[in-house]
Specification:
The protein is mainly beta and 394 residues long. The chain has a domain at 162-393: Porin, CATH 2.40.160.10. The protein has helices at 2-7, 9-14, 29-33; strands spanning 79-92, 104-116, 123-131, 151-161, 165-173, 206-216, 219-226, 240-248, 252-263, 275-286, 295-304, 314-327, 330-338, 342-343, 350-361, 364-373, 383-393.
Length: 394
């Protein structure tokens, strides 16, 4: 019930918002709770000066307590972050729905993030979002597209075990949640944001558990598992696994991941005897931190598709991107890579993009993006998109 009471904060927060956007400023729910002391109100329109003015709400607004003592309750470090994005864009795409090619399309999404720490080292995190960002002309920005419905998108609890080990358990999260990917390319696009390894860092969003270990001096290792709510860690459910090793130094980093995802589309299999797609992923970056020089990020993965029989089961992807942190008032980046899996013995289909991200003020950022995607289908033009994202944070 305490978790349910915490979630009641979300509708109240929504009522304070105009249809703008958000990204991250902490809200002091402790101050809000000071106006919620129902025991201090006399319904005969008189006030008792001797009553305590200390709120019986816990510091994070989690619920009422029976006394003025907060001992044994939730911690005082509950915070909320908010994020809203507005999207607009045109997509020249032969695969677009009828009468939608070259149309200017718009959308939005909205996110509330609630975080509570009970010990100062752990973290209970809940993501609540809504949006209408699935239009063809803006889909490359990866906005939420749940038709404006407010939903609990993710929930997780992260805690340390000793000084070097971190554990996470959650739902609607990928197996790779605690992994480290050596990539600093800051693209807003949903495709190249994967840094050339869309399969190796397994998602399979669902109930999950992960663990990471910090060896020190930049060397870390991690592993994770994600399954299905109705078939968690058994033969009938689709299971995903990942192991990861990374080294991050001051100006460069490198990471390796091995991912495995059960494939219920594999030929001749039954649900309790599925094939397994496997992938090896390698990423690296170099950031000289020198004015005028860009950071360079690269990624490559190689895998095998268990649903394919024969010599065409190999899959590869790659990406390379360069970004400059200070170009005028903002940052600039260019990149290219595969936008779909390259199947063995077929031609790769590439995506090329450029973006510029600049802050208008502390709470507002505008990011234009232009891209083109190769299409290998005969008599089909390449896809080109021009998009703008406006983000608000508070």
């Amino acid at each position: 019930m305490k978790l349910f009471q915490r979630l009641l904060v979300a509708p109240a927060a929504l009522g304070l918002l105009s249809p703008l956007s958000v990204s991250a400023t902490e809200v002091n729910l402790n101050e809000i709770s000071n106006y919620s002391d129902v025991e201090s109100v006399d319904f005969a329109n008189s006030f008792d000066d001797n009553l305590s003015d200390q709120s019986t709400l816990l510091a994070g607004g989690e619920g009422l307590v029976d006394s003025d003592s907060f001992d044994g309750g939730f911690s005082e470090t509950t915070s909320a972050t908010f994020g809203v994005n507005f999207y607009a864009g045109i997509n020249d795409d032969d695969d677009a729905a009828p009468n939608q090619e070259d149309n200017l399309m718009t959308g939005y999404d909205f996110t509330i993030g609630l975080t509570t720490s009970f010990t100062g080292e752990d973290s209970l995190d809940i993501a609540i979002d809504a949006g209408d960002g699935a239009s063809e002309g803006i889909v490359e920005f990866g906005g939420d597209g749940n038709a404006g419905a407010l939903t609990v998108d993710e929930i997780s609890y992260t805690f340390p075990l000793g000084d070097k080990t971190t554990v996470i358990v959650g739902d609607n999260l990928g197996a790779s949640t605690l992994t480290t990917k050596a990539c600093v390319y800051g693209t807003p696009s949903d495709t190249l944001d994967e840094c050339g390894v869309p399969n190796g860092y397994v998602g399979n969003d669902g109930p999950m558990v992960g663990v990471s270990y910090d060896f020190g001096n930049g060397l870390t290792a991690a592993a994770g598992y994600a399954g299905e709510n109705a078939d968690f860690a058994n033969e009938e459910g689709v299971d995903g696994y990942v192991v990861n090793l990374a080294y991050i130094a001051d100006t460069y980093g490198v990471s390796f991941a091995y991912g495995a995802l059960e494939d219920d589309a594999a030929a001749g299999t039954v649900q309790d005897n599925m094939g397994v797609d496997t992938f090896f992923a390698l990423n690296a970056y170099f950031d000289p931190a020198t004015e005028g020089f860009p950071s360079i990020s690269v990624g490559y993965e190689n895998g095998e598709d268990a649903s394919v029989v024969g010599d065409s089961d190999g899959i590869t992807n790659f990406m390379v991107g360069a970004s400059w942190d200070e170009v005028g008032p903002g940052s600039f980046g260019i990149g290219m890579g595969t936008h779909t899996n390259t199947v063995e013995d077929t031609d790769a289909q590439y995506m090329y993009e450029a973006y510029y991200e600049y802050p208008i003020n502390d709470g507002m950022t505008i990011t234009p993006l232009i891209f083109t995607k190769d299409v290998s289908t005969a008599n089909t033009d390449d896809t080109t998109g021009v998009m703008v994202k406006t983000s608000f944070a508070f």
